[in-house]
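Appendix B. Chain record.
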Amino acid sequence: MSFKEDVADLAKRAISAQAVAQTEEATKNAIVLPFLRVLGFDVFDPTQIIPEYVADIGLKKGEKIDYACKIGDRIEYLVEAKSVSTNLRDAQYSQLFRYFHTCDTNIGILTNGLHIWFFTDLDAPNKMDASPFFKFDLLSYDENDLKELEKFHKSNFSIENIQAAASSLKYLRGAMNFIESQWANPDEEFVRFIAREFYEGKLTGAVVSDLKPIVRRAFDDLFRQRAKHKIDVAFDSGPEEEIPAVSDSKIETTPEEMQGFMIVRAIAAEVAPVSRITLRDAQSYCAILFDDNNRKPVARMHFNGKTKFLSVFGPDKEASRFDIEDIDGIFVAREAIRTVVGFYMQNQ
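Structure tokens predicted for this chain:
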């Protein structure tokens, strides 16, 4: 199988194991060892995988790290595993931190089987960074994530390439976090920075305060335009696919409903794989579901009446109504769509 197929198979295994592999040992056997196998290691070869690796540190004697992964004669990865029920944000990984320095390794890996965090020493040589430079989520990943993960495959290993990518990912993550925070609530300094490009008057406090909602709206409109452009390109690319006839002639998915579905999909893709957002048409409305499961509704498009509106469901299955004048009005419901899809991703 290809690397992509191996990861997809591992993801299925992880979903199945999620409900039963509650202890650390069960998680290691059910998911972590298969993950190392996906990275090209023979998990039964002690020259490649050393379980319960011991490297005494100062006064700390007999401490063990779950796995040391060797490539050639050198330990390149240290792996600390937690139970599948552990939230990695709350996990203690002091052993991984200490061993990273002592073993002169390059990559530290912290995982609960579902989420895999990769650490290196970008901030100070031989000292593991406090934050991971790359996070891989087996339950939610895209092609870019796969490309990054494949760099850690034993046959592809190059610490120079990984560290170069780590540096880029670190700064990319920082830039994305900054942009997202300014998008949600631009601060005075950022508004002044933007306003200098188009406002000719004096940027007093009152002017900056008035410009703040305009800058926020500019972010929203830019996102809408870019998403709409991608949707238009998708509709215009290639020959039109023939849609099979529906047995009930009263049910017809209109081009407007398809465009609406593509917009909801584009928004949902911020928090989930786009393939998990599906369409199911009905006579009075057009339903958008998570995993094509009617018990996991995302939204319903009511476009057949005089008043067009979108119903977006919350985690409690209560629907919120958004009246819209045209397709672009769907973007008003962006946060509600992200919230419900994110809820389904976290509660699978």
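Further analysis of this model is presented in Appendix C.
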